Amino acid sequence: MSRGTQATINLKHLKHNYKVLQTLAPNKLVLVVKADAYGHGLKQIIQTLDEADCFAVATIEEAMTIRRINPTVRIVLLEGFLSLSELHIAIDNKFDSVIHQQQQLDMLDTLTLSNRINIWLKYDSGMNRLGFNAKDFTTAIGKLENKQQVNELILMSHLASANLTQSDFTKQQTKKFLEISNNHTLSLSNSSALLTGKNLVDEWCRVGLSLFGVSPIEGKKSVDFNLKPVMTLKTNVIAIKKVSAGETIGYSQTYTAKFDSQIAIIGIGYGDGYPWAINPSAYVKIDNTDAPIVGSVSMDMIAIDITEVKNITVGDSVLIWGEEDTMHLPIETIAENANTIPYVLLCQLTSRVHYKYV
Ligand SMILES: Cc1ncc(COP(=O)(O)O)c(C=O)c1O
Question: What is the pTM of this model?
Answer without folding.
Answer: 0.97
